[in-house]
Design brief:
alpha+beta; Elongation Factor Tu (Ef-tu), domain 3; six-stranded antiparallel barrel
Length: about 350
């Protein structure tokens, strides 16, 4: 009895069919192994990209940053009409340079009034002293010495103010000279109140002292009409022109201090160990130039990351704020707000 087979054994030689030789023709599309490799590579690309991102996150420690160029708005400390503007936009100024001159007719009239009244009372006091017959007494000698000291310190104060305008004195020196002058004035007032026996002379002397203080305050207010540059910098924008009125506290112009440029870095919290002072970093500019820098300040605050610095799949997050200072000069022009990339060494200092 014939045994029926429902499965056919595997043919090891496709050119032999049960003893009959079958000659097949050559394939019109020969198989190329590299095509299969290409398909495998293409299918594996997402996995390779993911592995690359994970490896880069581990090896390359990076943070975003922005270049910050300090800009100060110079405001009027007095009020008046602008008589003259000495600067133009994009002009570099030095510390103490004159920026603008204001004029205030009310202040000028008050200054002239006080000065004229003071001169008149000085003459009237001298006449009363001569009439009282104490011009040569010991009391008058003490008063004259106190007056000479007051005049000496007043002249010294004016000299320091003149030197300050010439950038040869500091505000601290002016403050010291003013304090010495006020002390001399108080001493003169005390001596006059003690030595003068005539109520009329004492009244005139007290009025003179009051006017002297008022004249000094008015003189200080007149000096505030001249606006000076606080530091060396670049004028970026003018807000007022000659002939316009400036009230107290109103802006005149903006000054940018290129020499004080720094970088604000936003360090991810997971890299907190790198947010320490004197940590060395490498800054990469959009032009491709790199430069060495170091962290000079970590205020201890966080800030929301900018959407411009986020990747396509990243969500806004908080970052540790740090201030970075460049070491040495760079060829890239430092522009306020320009984004930079900050890279930390694999091992923290």
């Amino acid at each position: 009895m014939m045994k029926i087979r429902f499965n056919q054994p595997e043919k090891r030689n496709p050119s032999d069919d049960r003893g009959i030789s079958i000659n097949y023709g050559q394939a019109k599309r020969p198989g190329r192994p590299w095509r299969w490799y290409l398909i495998v590579i293409i299918v594996s690309l997402p996995l390779l990209y993911l592995l690359g991102v994970i490896a880069r996150e581990i090896i390359v420690i990076e943070a975003h940053g922005r270049i910050k160029v300090p800009i100060i708005t110079v405001r009027s400390s007095s009020e008046g009409y602008i008589q003259q503007v000495f600067v133009e936009p994009l002009q570099t100024v030095t510390k103490g340079s004159k920026l603008a001159l204001l004029t205030n007719n009310t202040l000028e009239n008050n200054y002239n009034r006080v000065r004229n009244e003071l001169n008149f009372l000085d003459k009237e006091r001298d006449d009363l002293l001569r009439q009282s017959g104490i011009t040569a007494s010991d009391s008058m000698q003490l008063i004259n010495i106190a007056r000479e000291q007051k005049s000496f310190y007043l002249n010294r104060l004016r000299q320091y103010e003149l030197l300050f305008e010439q950038k040869a004195a500091t505000q601290a020196e002016i403050a010291t000279a003013r304090s010495q002058y006020l002390s001399a004035l108080e001493k003169l007032t005390s001596i006059e109140n003690t030595q003068y026996t005539s109520p009329e002379i004492r009244q005139v002397a007290n009025r003179i002292n009051q006017l002297t203080l008022e004249l000094g305050k008015t003189q200080d207010q007149k000096q505030e009409l001249t606006l000076l540059a606080p530091e060396k910098g670049l004028i970026t924008e003018l807000f007022a022109q000659t002939g316009e009125y400036l009230g107290r506290g109103q802006p005149l112009l903006d000054i940018m201090f290129n020499e004080n440029t720094y970088i604000s870095a936003f360090i991810p919290p997971k890299h907190q160990k790198f947010a320490v002072v004197n940590q060395m970093v490498k800054v990469k500019f959009p032009s491709g130039e790199t430069a060495k820098a170091r962290i000079v300040s970590v205020p201890g605050v966080t800030q929301k990351s900018s959407t411009e610095d986020l990747g396509p799949l990243e969500a806004p997050h908080s970052a540790i704020l740090a201030q970075i200072e460049l070491i040495g000069a760079v060829k890239t022009r430092l522009i306020h707000g320009m984004p930079v990339s900050i890279r930390f060494p694999f091992f923290a200092n």
